[in-house]
């Protein structure tokens, strides 16, 4: 049954909308971190609607929030499948088939359709674009060269067809840009639509000196699954602590997943304490971040990795996996963290060596550099890329956005 949700008043910080059009966004669900971006889009677009495949996926643990948005839940068939990647992991994915997409688009009669990812909803949106020539189509993509490994020729062919139907396409980072270019996308039609941290999830207070130099406080936030690389990370931290008996280590593990129970049973040396908190509300992150020295992001495959943004905004250096686009895009070794290969048994230990070699002044400088590296990556900045894409397909200038 289709569920129409109550609309909320839009913010009125602009005298007139930047995009004078009816725009419909189709996506799977709204993560908490995306809400401020979509609210910013609603503020700058005359008539903005969101079509969701589901309120939240089964492996996500948060209360959906849509305030300020006009949202409709679609009629959707959800399928579960296994993702087997060459990096050596299996993971669960949910594939949504919102089968009333054509009817919803005919009902709303959009000037611009924004469709996330290159699946069924984008196929249905492309058909709508063909049948309704006045309507424009923007495909919003999130991927990297690493996550796209092994996708197969059939999928590449389908994606080339979808790309050929789009009036514009967005990309979340440099690696995604390269994937789209390899699939034949016209660079002139590509627009940067990056991730941005929710201001409610970051620590913005004064940067505090690192804790006791004899204690290294590490933090992991994310699902506890094979794809996230947590097994190897814990094993490597345990081994490092064993080799540095004169140093105390603390590791806080935030999140849930099938690996939590076996990881909590791992034997640890006396100088290493591992705490498993379970899932925590995103509003607790601003308190959690400054209570640690480092964030470890050990993923085996992430097309971005927003927790890296959140940590950097909070002044927390990151030891991040090279297999995530956030790491390769945002981190600079010895400036705001370190990059490492989680498949290398000695990769994490080398980064921890470099952290321990930093004195108090170097650590304070690194905290400042963390914030500087993401200072412009706000929800408004993220939304501006999609506003530019909308202006482009409407044939208007991209220089008259309503900025913060």
Topology:
Blueprint: E1 3-4, E2 19-27, H1 35-44, E3 45-52, E4 70-73, E5 76-85, E6 89-98, H2 101-108, E7 112-116, H3 120-131, E8 136-140, H4 153-165, E9 168-171, H5 174-182, E10 190-192, E11 215-221, H6 230-243, E12 248-254, H7 260-264, E13 272-278, H8 285-288, E14 294-297, H9 306-313, E15 318-321, H10 325-330, E16 337-340, H11 347-356, H12 360-373, H13 379-394
Parallel strand pairs: 2-3, 2-7, 3-4, 7-8, 8-9, 9-10, 11-12, 11-14, 12-13, 14-15, 15-16
Antiparallel strand pairs: 1-4, 5-6
Structural notes for this entry:
With 404 residues, the protein is of the alpha/beta class. The protein has 2 domains: 3-196 and 378-394, Glycogen Phosphorylase B (Rossmann fold), CATH 3.40.50.2000; 203-373, 3-Layer(aba) Sandwich (Rossmann fold). Helices cover 32% and strands 23% of the residues. The chain has helices at 35-44, 101-108, 120-131, 153-165, 174-182, 230-243, 260-264, 285-288, 306-313, 325-330, 347-356, 360-373, 379-394; strands at residues 3-4, 19-27, 45-52, 70-73, 76-85, 89-98, 112-116, 136-140, 168-171, 190-192, 215-221, 248-254, 272-278, 294-297, 318-321, 337-340. The strands form 3 sheets. The chain has an 8-stranded mixed β-sheet, sandwiched between helices. It has a 6-stranded parallel β-sheet with strand order 13-12-11-14-15-16, with helices on both faces. α1 (35-44) links the parallel β2 (19-27) and β3 (45-52). α1 packs across α13 and α2 crosses α3. 43% of the residues are buried. Mean pLDDT is 90; it is low at 1-14 and 397-401.
């Amino acid at each position: 049954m289709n569920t129409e949700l109550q609309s909320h008043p839009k913010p009125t910080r602009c005298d007139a909308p930047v995009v004078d059009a009816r725009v419909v966004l189709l996506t799977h669900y709204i993560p908490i971190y995306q809400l401020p971006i979509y609210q910013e889009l609603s503020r700058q677009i005359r008539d903005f609607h969101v079509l969701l495949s589901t309120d939240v996926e089964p492996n996500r643990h948060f209360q959906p929030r849509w305030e300020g948005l006009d949202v409709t839940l679609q009629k959707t068939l959800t399928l579960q499948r296994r993702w087997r990647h060459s990096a050596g992991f299996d993971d669960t994915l949910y594939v949504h088939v919102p089968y009333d997409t054509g009817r919803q688009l005919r009902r709303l009669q959009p000037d611009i359709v924004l469709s996330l990812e290159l699946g069924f909803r984008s196929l249905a949106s492309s058909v709508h674009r063909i049948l309704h020539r006045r309507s424009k189509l923007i495909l919003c993509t999130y991927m990297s060269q690493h996550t796209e490994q092994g996708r197969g020729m059939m999928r590449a062919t389908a994606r080339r067809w979808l790309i050929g139907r789009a009036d514009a396409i967005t990309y979340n980072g440099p690696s995604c840009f390269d994937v789209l270019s390899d699939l034949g996308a016209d660079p002139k039609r590509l627009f940067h639509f990056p991730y941005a941290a929710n201001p409610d999830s970051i620590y913005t207070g004064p940067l505090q000196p690192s804790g006791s130099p004899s204690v290294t406080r590490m933090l992991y936030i994310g699902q506890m699954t094979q794809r996230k690389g947590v097994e190897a990370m814990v094993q490597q931290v345990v081994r490092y602590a064993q080799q540095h008996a004169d140093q105390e280590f603390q590791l806080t593990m935030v999140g849930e997943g099938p690996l939590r129970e076996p990881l909590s049973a791992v034997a640890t040396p006396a100088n290493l304490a591992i705490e498993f908190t379970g899932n925590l509300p995103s509003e607790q992150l601003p308190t959690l971040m400054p209570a640690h020295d480092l964030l470890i992001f050990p993923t085996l495959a992430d097309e971005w990795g927003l927790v890296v943004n959140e940590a950097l905004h909070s002044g927390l250096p990151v030891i991040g996996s090279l297999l995530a686009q956030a790491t390769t895009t945002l981190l600079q070794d010895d400036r705001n963290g370190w990059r490492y290969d989680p498949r290398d048994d000695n990769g994490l230990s080398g980064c921890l060596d470099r952290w321990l070699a930093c004195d108090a002044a170097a650590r304070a400088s690194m905290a400042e550099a963390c914030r500087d590296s993401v200072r412009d990556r706000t929800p408004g900045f993220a939304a501006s890329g999609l506003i530019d894409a909308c202006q482009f397909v409407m044939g208007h200038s991209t220089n008259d956005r309503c900025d913060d």
